[in-house]
Structures
1.
Amino acid sequence: MKKILTSLLALVMAFSLASCGKKKAEQSNASGNGDPAMTSAPGTTADSKTVAKLINFTTEDGDIVFRINSSLGLDEDSWIGICTKGTYVYEDDADDASITYSFYEERESENEDFVFKVTYDGLEDGEYTMVLCDTDNEGYVMASWPLVIKDGNPTVDLSGFSINPKPENMPPKTNPAETVDPNEDGDDDGFDGNFEGPEGEEPDDGADDA
């Protein structure tokens, strides 16, 4: 009987220690140490220190200007958009629900913030969800946060800034971005688009156009 009680007690203590370890890990992840986008659990509302490190914003002339810390290492087709209120995981769903969006502006160095200007002018009063997507090509929603428009004025609620790691079950991209040759005009007539003839006429390729 003592052996059984001892075994049960040991088992309870083991579970207790495991539980404490998990809580410690969660607290460490919420502290803002390391890459917050990697350490936060799915849909985790980030603490204020993490948010202050990652993002800030201003409003000007009908736009909300977001500055994202360069440490996030965004792809060139990452975007921020205003969507109808909801929870989004995949970029395709956010894309379908987006009302207005913006890609980041050109940067002079890799150490500069990523700057997005998202237009809110003309939006109806109501509640919206803002999303930061990793790509415009079947990606995922890296982060989201609430937006409220009242009397035509925006209120960005960064206290609800939620960070999402990349979903483990991400489907492979079925529509890879096309690479376009800038010297090609898209026609199968042999004309490469660089001819500077009179009035922009294409040269006669000898084919019967009738």
Note: Residues 2-29 form the longest helix (28 residues).
2.
Amino acid sequence: MTKLNIKNMVCNRCIKVVKEELEKLGFTVTEIELGDVEVKENLIAEDYDKIREVMNENGFELIEDSKKKIVEEIKKVIINKIHYSDEPGEENISSLLEEKLNKDYASLSKLFSSIENITIEHFVILQKIEKVKELLRYGELTLSEIAYKLGYKSVNHLSSQFKKHTGLTATEFKSTTSLKRKPLDSIK
């Protein structure tokens, strides 16, 4: 059995593509979730080469460096919390990361910044802004409800952060149909 770490797996469609591609190569996927895949086989160097090539062709990357694996774990925790959790976003991200990765936040933060060239805090803000864009496009929640869902202390804080990062107010964004959201794997 071999565990693989895959960069840029950010949604259920990514999981489907990675699983299908590995199965086309003849591997048995026993477990798969964002960023992580477990195959039944014990892999040899040639297998890694094939997997690396097919992942690159599909916009993914096989992560083999231990520091990059930790950074991808950090991203996975943040993306899951912001984009896929139904619980309000009140939970402190630093505490969540320490709990999930079993490492102190200061070392995680330093490592993340050294690899990604942005802070964890900035990455969280960018992820939240993309989630706000998504929720505004759906038009099902008020800005107050969005602020609560994403753990903002106030609507004003969300509004000022949104304006700072997009150059638009939430109302202006909703009325502008030409603006696109960014894919989660390209947010930096």
Note: The mean pLDDT is 88.
3.
Amino acid sequence: MLKADITNRRFYNKWLYKVTLNIPGVSIFRQNSLEKIPLLNFDGQKHTHSTMARASLHRQELIALSSFLLEWDKELWSKRIECSAIDIYTNDKTMYTDLFLAFEEMACARSEPNEKDLDLLENTGSIIVKKLPHNRYAYKAFLLPHKIKDRKDKKEYVDWITGQNNRILISNVVKEWFIKTDWNWDRRYVLIEDSQTLLMLKLRNPEALGRIYDYVINDK
């Protein structure tokens, strides 16, 4: 059985459970409702479009998934699709378990919380850890490079962070990414030592900060 990763913060500040399925052609879920999936003409013609061609080879799995999801209230779950992978998020443990067992052969990842951490996970701004990153940093802040337009200003911001004597930890990869990236993408972050340093960072360029999390130690 595929081992579950431990959820240490809510996905999208909302969801406790996640199952990732690898089903080629699953991106047809972007353009079609769940009700429409079983009605698609998979065999009516030779499909030249790569997505539909892949979907036609995996129609049974795709129809089964749409049927499964239709059994659950839309408010109980959410999805995210990237290439051939679909992430299904939920807070319903029964749905999570049933989904994984029904599609175990296609599952490539899953996440669930420790029961003892459920109260801590009520705080969506926290990440549960056994120890602080590098035994030092109390906060994690995602960056918004598109909020600073001028490359010179971007470099000055990165140089200022670097000059904080490691009270803010930023990798060389993130430095280069921040300076060169102009689109809205907040998947990279810095680590911050304490609340005073976080306040300094907020005052320096508040528009450049996205989601901020504090680390909560739970080593029981």
Note: The chain has seven helices and ten strands.
4.
Amino acid sequence: MKTLKITLLLVLVAALPALAQAPVDINVFASWVDAQGEMVFDEGPETNFESGDGFGVSVNWFWGQSLSTELSASALTIDAGLDLAGEPFVDLGSVDLTPISLTLQYHFARDSVIDPYLGVGAAWVMVEDLESDDLDLLFGTLEADDEFTYVLNAGLGIRMTQSFGLYLDAKYMPLEIATRAAGDLEDTDLEIDPMILSAGIRLRF
């Protein structure tokens, strides 16, 4: 799966030559993830997601002075567990997410030094199965389904030169991941709802 993530990021960058005739921004960034979801199960445990991190790349096509479409791919990792009475109970391992999002953005001042924007779109989130020593003792690997969700987006571009700048971006995507033990027909949904904050560089063509 890690090879797939890297391949997806490289495919986005490799798309640049085909887009040379249109105004395009390429953004390469690091991300910090705040997992805002929380669930309390009937037996008493509740989910606990640590802050995560990752990296990504995006390609932004401009269709005029204000409107653009951003295709973005990220590789994100969030540590997860179950707490009981406020204490760690079961280590769920890491939740590895690869969101591929397509967002329509409105830019308020694209040609200015400061370019704030708002966006809305959709994301396909690929999810790796959850593995840990605790899970191996209980019932083995938790199989996880990929999920489709919507995206709310806001950000800021800061122009340093004509072709180089800084990229600051925030994406919120409500996300419930269906999981199950191997051979189990009943799903357990893990609510994550990540807020993804990214910072990096912007190359303008």
Note: The chain has one domain: 2-204.
